[in-house]
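Review form for a predicted model. The reviewer records the input and the model, then writes brief findings.
Reviewer: anonymous (R2)
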Amino acid sequence: MDGLVSFLQHPFVGFLLKLFAGIAAALFGILGLGRDVRNKDDIKLTPKGRVALIGIIVAGTLGSGSVIYDYFSAERTAADEKLKSERLLQSVQRGLYPFKGMRTDFTLYFTKDFEGLTEYKHLVRSEVMKDPQCKHSNRYCYGSGADGVYLYSIDPKSPIFPKPGSPVRTVLEHVGLYVQPFKRVQDPAAGANVFKFSPFDGFAVGVSDPQTEQWSLQYDIKSDFVALDVRDVKVPDDSLNKTGVLSLVDIIPGAMISGPTELGVNQMCDTLHLVPADCRQYIEQPLYGGMKIEVAYFKFPYPKSYTFGLQNELHCQSVPTQLIGSFFPHDIDASNFLNEVGGSTSDDDKKLLCEGMARYQNGERYDQPKELSPQSKLKRHE
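Model under review:
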């Protein structure tokens, strides 16, 4: 059926319709010229009159067909031009929004004590209780409530910041965020107008250079929690290149998932001289179930950014740890802050994103279209 429609829209068909319509009009007009088309007695059509009538009908039909052809041909031309414009716009956008140069701020809470954290919290509490209301010094005070200060900040220059080689410092240098992009696409297996989130490979980010990057600790005296607070850390471009995402346009519309992760648990345990059984008990298990993202903010060198917040926390059966979703709009230029477009995220989209995560675990990856723009092909080889 599609082949027949395509054939009928071919320019040669339109040419034939116009040609035969003109020929028919001229031929039957000549045949009927000066002829008696009706009997004088009963006003019925004569044989030549019937020929002329048939000619009029044939010429009218061919003319109508020509008009219909012109309409659908114009529709197809407009659709082709629209597609070309969209591809050109996407090509330009790929060059404007490369998937590199990303920087992040995030806060990561430790709700379960790992090796050395209990002793460290005791040290911090003892220090801040010497001046809990910061009346004599504002060295640690960070946030306050109705009943006084409850949140304290400890920067790397503080004498009570974890020392290099200590258990707490070692863990802090080996934790961070895992982030995974997804593309929202039609699901051909489920039918028309049914969508899914197709996964790319993910990337991880942590404090890669403790000497230069901006990080600090927060201590919540009410909950007795310690949090790692990281500011303006660069995500390595090598990590971003491995995702398969060439441009931010590739995940528009789409989403990202983020969750806390360990960055080299074996290295941590080797540094702390822990045997595998102790490593699982005192490091892996507390981190696996106890790390929580409070907020994460990602920005690019161009004016685009997105966040992960607790309002879009996911509950995926395939991943028992905390996951947060960040959902992107259909139009990348709708806003510089991508999350603010479209309002709150529906439970259905959250469910679809969890299903996308499960497909990733089963080995599925998003297939990039083969018709990449020249800019994208160059970026792939950079």
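Findings: The chain has two domains: 2-89, 100-381.
Further findings: Residues 75 and 292 are 53 Å apart (CA to CA).
Recommendation: see findings above.
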